[in-house]
Amino acid sequence: MNAISRYGHADLPTIRQILLDVHADAYATEMHDPFHQTEKFAWFVDHWGARPSFDCVIAFDTGQPAGFAYGATAALGRETWRGHLSPTPTPGTTFALSELMVRPKWRGTGLAQRLHNTLLAPRPEQLTTLLVDTTHPRVQALYETWGYHKIGERQPFPDSPLYTVMLRGLPDA
Protein backbone atom coordinates (compact mmCIF):
# COMPACT_ATOMS: atom_id res chain seq x y z
CA MET A 1 0.00 0.00 0.00
CA ASN A 2 1.57 3.25 -1.09
CA ALA A 3 -0.42 5.91 0.73
CA ILE A 4 -3.54 6.94 2.55
CA SER A 5 -4.57 10.50 1.71
CA ARG A 6 -7.00 12.72 3.62
CA TYR A 7 -9.69 14.88 2.04
CA GLY A 8 -12.31 17.29 3.31
CA HIS A 9 -15.52 18.97 2.28
CA ALA A 10 -13.84 21.22 -0.31
CA ASP A 11 -12.23 18.20 -2.00
CA LEU A 12 -15.47 16.38 -2.82
CA PRO A 13 -15.54 17.41 -6.51
CA THR A 14 -12.04 15.93 -6.88
CA ILE A 15 -12.68 12.62 -5.08
CA ARG A 16 -16.36 11.99 -5.82
CA GLN A 17 -15.78 9.75 -8.84
CA ILE A 18 -13.13 7.76 -6.97
CA LEU A 19 -15.66 7.03 -4.21
CA LEU A 20 -18.28 5.99 -6.76
CA ASP A 21 -15.83 3.72 -8.58
CA VAL A 22 -14.68 1.99 -5.39
CA HIS A 23 -18.33 1.52 -4.38
CA ALA A 24 -19.19 0.00 -7.77
CA ASP A 25 -16.39 -2.54 -7.34
CA ALA A 26 -17.07 -3.25 -3.66
CA TYR A 27 -20.81 -3.76 -4.25
CA ALA A 28 -20.64 -5.33 -7.71
CA THR A 29 -22.48 -8.45 -6.55
CA GLU A 30 -25.23 -6.43 -4.80
CA MET A 31 -26.19 -4.00 -7.58
CA HIS A 32 -29.50 -5.86 -8.01
CA ASP A 33 -30.60 -4.25 -4.72
CA PRO A 34 -31.76 -0.67 -5.44
CA PHE A 35 -30.39 0.50 -2.07
CA HIS A 36 -26.84 -0.45 -3.12
CA GLN A 37 -26.96 0.92 -6.66
CA THR A 38 -24.54 3.65 -7.68
CA GLU A 39 -27.23 6.34 -8.01
CA LYS A 40 -28.30 5.83 -4.40
CA PHE A 41 -24.71 5.79 -3.19
CA ALA A 42 -24.00 9.00 -5.10
CA TRP A 43 -26.79 10.67 -3.12
CA PHE A 44 -25.12 9.58 0.15
CA VAL A 45 -21.71 10.82 -1.03
CA ASP A 46 -23.20 14.22 -1.87
CA HIS A 47 -25.18 14.33 1.39
CA TRP A 48 -22.18 13.59 3.61
CA GLY A 49 -19.72 15.53 1.47
CA ALA A 50 -21.85 18.69 1.77
CA ARG A 51 -21.16 18.82 5.51
CA PRO A 52 -18.34 21.17 6.53
CA SER A 53 -17.03 18.49 8.94
CA PHE A 54 -16.83 15.85 6.16
CA ASP A 55 -13.62 13.87 6.51
CA CYS A 56 -12.45 11.18 4.09
CA VAL A 57 -9.38 9.01 3.70
CA ILE A 58 -8.58 7.07 0.54
CA ALA A 59 -5.96 4.32 0.26
CA PHE A 60 -3.99 4.07 -2.97
CA ASP A 61 -1.90 1.12 -4.11
CA THR A 62 0.43 2.05 -6.97
CA GLY A 63 -1.93 4.89 -7.82
CA GLN A 64 -5.07 2.75 -7.83
CA PRO A 65 -7.74 3.44 -5.16
CA ALA A 66 -8.02 0.40 -2.90
CA GLY A 67 -10.57 1.64 -0.38
CA PHE A 68 -11.87 4.57 1.60
CA ALA A 69 -13.57 5.64 4.80
CA TYR A 70 -15.59 8.78 5.41
CA GLY A 71 -17.97 10.46 7.78
CA ALA A 72 -18.71 13.72 9.57
CA THR A 73 -19.72 15.08 12.91
CA ALA A 74 -23.22 13.79 13.63
CA ALA A 75 -25.91 16.44 13.29
CA LEU A 76 -27.03 17.55 16.73
CA GLY A 77 -30.22 15.71 17.64
CA ARG A 78 -29.82 13.21 14.80
CA GLU A 79 -27.12 10.97 16.25
CA THR A 80 -27.86 7.31 15.54
CA TRP A 81 -27.48 6.44 19.21
CA ARG A 82 -30.55 8.58 20.10
CA GLY A 83 -33.32 6.40 21.48
CA HIS A 84 -30.83 3.69 22.43
CA LEU A 85 -28.95 5.31 25.35
CA SER A 86 -30.07 6.75 28.64
CA PRO A 87 -28.69 9.02 29.86
CA THR A 88 -27.67 10.49 26.53
CA PRO A 89 -24.05 11.47 25.83
CA THR A 90 -22.98 15.10 25.67
CA PRO A 91 -24.36 16.69 22.47
CA GLY A 92 -21.98 17.47 19.64
CA THR A 93 -19.40 14.85 20.54
CA THR A 94 -20.21 12.12 18.01
CA PHE A 95 -18.47 11.29 14.74
CA ALA A 96 -20.70 9.35 12.35
CA LEU A 97 -18.62 6.89 10.35
CA SER A 98 -20.79 6.67 7.26
CA GLU A 99 -18.78 4.43 4.95
CA LEU A 100 -15.80 2.11 5.11
CA MET A 101 -15.21 0.25 1.85
CA VAL A 102 -12.38 -1.89 0.58
CA ARG A 103 -12.27 -3.21 -2.95
CA PRO A 104 -12.29 -7.02 -3.19
CA LYS A 105 -8.65 -7.26 -4.28
CA TRP A 106 -7.51 -5.66 -0.99
CA ARG A 107 -9.89 -7.36 1.45
CA GLY A 108 -8.31 -9.40 4.19
CA THR A 109 -5.12 -7.31 4.16
CA GLY A 110 -5.82 -5.15 7.22
CA LEU A 111 -6.61 -2.18 5.02
CA ALA A 112 -10.07 -1.62 6.54
CA GLN A 113 -8.58 -1.14 10.00
CA ARG A 114 -5.83 1.13 8.66
CA LEU A 115 -8.45 3.30 6.93
CA HIS A 116 -10.61 3.34 10.07
CA ASN A 117 -7.74 4.27 12.37
CA THR A 118 -6.35 6.90 9.99
CA LEU A 119 -9.75 8.55 9.62
CA LEU A 120 -10.47 8.65 13.35
CA ALA A 121 -7.00 9.46 14.74
CA PRO A 122 -7.27 13.27 14.48
CA ARG A 123 -11.02 13.53 15.11
CA PRO A 124 -11.99 15.58 18.19
CA GLU A 125 -15.30 13.79 18.86
CA GLN A 126 -15.49 11.59 21.95
CA LEU A 127 -17.83 9.02 20.38
CA THR A 128 -17.95 7.24 17.06
CA THR A 129 -21.11 5.64 15.73
CA LEU A 130 -21.74 3.48 12.69
CA LEU A 131 -24.37 1.21 11.19
CA VAL A 132 -23.84 -2.39 10.10
CA ASP A 133 -26.32 -4.37 8.00
CA THR A 134 -27.79 -6.97 10.38
CA THR A 135 -27.26 -9.66 7.74
CA HIS A 136 -23.47 -9.18 8.06
CA PRO A 137 -22.61 -10.57 11.53
CA ARG A 138 -18.93 -11.01 10.61
CA VAL A 139 -18.65 -7.28 9.91
CA GLN A 140 -20.30 -6.53 13.25
CA ALA A 141 -17.88 -8.91 14.97
CA LEU A 142 -14.94 -7.15 13.32
CA TYR A 143 -16.11 -3.77 14.59
CA GLU A 144 -16.50 -5.25 18.07
CA THR A 145 -12.79 -6.15 17.99
CA TRP A 146 -12.15 -2.45 17.28
CA GLY A 147 -14.01 -1.39 20.42
CA TYR A 148 -17.57 -0.87 19.13
CA HIS A 149 -20.63 -2.12 20.98
CA LYS A 150 -24.09 -2.89 19.65
CA ILE A 151 -26.61 -0.53 21.23
CA GLY A 152 -29.68 -1.22 19.11
CA GLU A 153 -31.12 -1.58 15.62
CA ARG A 154 -32.74 0.82 13.18
CA GLN A 155 -33.91 1.13 9.61
CA PRO A 156 -33.06 4.72 8.60
CA PHE A 157 -34.87 4.64 5.25
CA PRO A 158 -37.91 2.66 4.07
CA ASP A 159 -35.80 0.97 1.37
CA SER A 160 -32.71 0.38 3.52
CA PRO A 161 -31.72 -2.80 5.28
CA LEU A 162 -32.16 -3.13 9.03
CA TYR A 163 -28.93 -1.96 10.64
CA THR A 164 -27.18 -2.69 13.91
CA VAL A 165 -26.35 0.62 15.62
CA MET A 166 -22.82 0.47 17.01
CA LEU A 167 -21.03 2.93 19.28
CA ARG A 168 -17.47 3.35 20.47
CA GLY A 169 -16.15 5.67 23.15
CA LEU A 170 -18.48 5.47 26.15
CA PRO A 171 -16.39 4.88 29.27
CA ASP A 172 -18.77 2.20 30.60
CA ALA A 173 -19.42 0.53 27.25
Write up what this structure looks like:
The protein is of the alpha+beta class and 173 residues long. The protein has one domain (3-168): 3-Layer(aba) Sandwich (Aminopeptidase). It has helices at 12-26, 38-49, 111-120, 137-145, and strands at residues 3-8, 55-61, 64-73, 94-102, 127-133, 149-154, 163-168. Strand 6 and strand 7 (163-168) form a beta hairpin. Helix 1 (12-26) packs antiparallel against helix 2. The longest helix is centred in the N-terminal third of the chain and has 15 residues, at 12-26. It is globular, with a radius of gyration of 15 Å. The N and C termini lie far apart (33 Å). 29% of the residues are buried. The model has no long low-confidence stretch (mean pLDDT 92).
Q: Which key features would you list for this structure?
A:
alpha+beta, globular, 7-stranded mixed sheet
Low-confidence stretches: none
Mean pLDDT reading: 92
> Percent of residues in helical segments?
25-40%
CA distance, first residue to last residue? 33 Å
Q: In percent, how much strand structure appears in the residues? A: 25-35%
The total count of helices amounts to 4
How many strand units? Answer: 7
What's the CATH architecture name?
3-Layer(aba) Sandwich
Task: Indicate the CATH topology.
Answer: Aminopeptidase
Task: Report the biggest beta sheet as strand number plus sense, adding barrel if it closes.
Answer: 7 strands, mixed
Task: Sum up the overall morphology in one term.
Answer: globular
Compute the number of structural domains. 1
Order of the strands making up the biggest sheet: 1-2-3-4-5-7-6
CATH class: Alpha Beta
Protein name: GNAT family N-acetyltransferase
Keywords: Acyltransferase, Transferase
InterPro entries: Acyl_CoA_acyltransferase (IPR016181), GNAT_dom (IPR000182)
Domain N-acetyltransferase: 2-171
